[in-house]
Amino acid sequence: MKIRRGVSEMNLAFLDVICCGFGAIILLLMITKISLPLVLEESIDDFAAQVALKQQAIKEIFGEIEVLERAKEESELSLDEALQRLTRIQEELEELTSRFEALRLNTQDKESHLTDLFRAKQSLTDEMERLLGKDYRRQTAAIGGMTVDSEYIIFIIDTSGSMQQGAWGAVVRKVTEVLNIYPNVKGIQVMNDMGDYMFPRYQRQWIQDSPARRTAILNRLRTWDIYSNSSPVEGIEEAISAFYDPDKKISLYVFGDDFQGRSVEHVVDRIDLVNAVDEEGNRRVRIHAVGFPVYFDAGRTSGSVLQFALLMRELTTRNGGTFVALPSLH
Fold first, then answer.
1. What percent of the chain has pLDDT over 90?
2. What whole-number percentage of the chain has pLDDT above 70?
3. Sorting pLDDT into bands at 50, 70 and 90, what band is 149?
4. Are 256 and 193 in contact (CB under 8 A)?
5. Best label site of 32, 160, 251, 325, fewest CB within 10 Å?
6. What are the Cα distances from residue 146, in Å, to 9, 168, 309?
7. Strand extents, DSSP E, the chain
């Protein structure tokens, strides 16, 4: 008969310890695996947020770059425009300097005569006495000094912007005064400095004098607005070539404020050709002139104003007339 040996209690306790240890390890592994995805997910979200912030910052940087590039292009364009303006101004300055130098050379030998512009006086001729009477006295000295010896008169009026804006009221008054010193004439004509007629239907024809005709001329003059180049050459040439008659005494009245031409001598020579001297040394027509101080009243001086004064003084002297420079527009 065999006897069975009992299991040792110590061995059973050891096995329990081992089993508990394995169980604890398995439990730790299970806990770790459950929390690990949560940590990874949080890390991924954090990185995604940082990436989004970086992308937004990049977009902002690109936007600032575009703004800077546009500003650079606009600055370059503005610089080009400024350089072009500067070039134009330099060219204008050179032209003005050249014109001033030409004017200075032309006026060196004539400056001593400028003080006489406001003092021109002439006495009545036999023809004036025949037309006006021995007892005639002018009612105004504003146009004094002009020889009134003609039975035909032509007005040549500068219709440029400066005259229209600054002197037109005075122009109407002076035309009225000139008509008043000719109570009776045989013919009247009015044109601008370029030779354009106030009444085209009377082109190259005399307008018969009458109170009604004079009123019509003055009414039309008040609103007469036609292009002008501020040079009386064309008007004077047209008047002489169209109306000269050896049997008629004709006077031209040139009204203006400045002369935009380049050469006074050139104009004088051209007028000498058309207003030739006859066998007795007389010119075909008499040329008077009235200067309106538009620029002086505005407190400005201009080379073109002095050019006009020199031109009118020379023309009137050579052509038996008088230049009257008005002291004011009132």
1. 30
2. 73
3. confident
4. yes
5. 32
6. 160, 21, 16
7. 152-157, 187-192, 250-256, 286-291, 323-325
Q: Is the pLDDT of residue 117 over 60?
A: no
Q: Please enumerate, as own/partner, the contacts of 218-226 that have beta carbons within 8 Å and a separation of 24 or more.
A: 218/172, 218/175, 218/176, 218/179, 221/157, 221/171, 221/172, 221/175, 221/190, 222/168, 222/172, 224/159, 224/192, 224/198, 225/159, 225/164, 226/159, 226/192, 226/196
The whole model's pTM is what?
A: 0.57
- Residue 324 to residue 292: CA distance in whole angstroms: 9
Residues 217, 255 contacting (CB under 8 angstroms): no
| 188 DSSP β-pair partners | 153, 207
* 303-318 helix and 264-274 helix, angle to the nearest 10 degrees: 30
Q: For residues 285 and 250, is the Cβ–Cβ distance under 8 A?
A: yes
Measured between alpha carbons, how far is residue 86 from residues 80, 100, 168 in Å?
Answer: 10, 21, 36
* pLDDT digit string, tens, across residues 167-204: 999 999 999 999 999 988 999 999 999 999 999 999 99
Backbone angles phi, psi at 71, to 5 degrees: -60, -40
Is 177 in contact with 143 (CB distance < 8 Å)? yes
Cα 85 off chain centre by: 15
Q: Report yes or no: 232 and 268 within 8 Å, Cβ to Cβ.
A: no
- The tokens of 120 are what? 């021109």
- Sequence-distant (6+) residues with CB within 8 A of 148 are 124, 128, 131, 132, 181, 182, 251
Residue 210 to residues 185, 188, 223, 311: CA-CA distances in angstroms?
Answer: 9, 10, 21, 33
pLDDT at 127 over 60: no
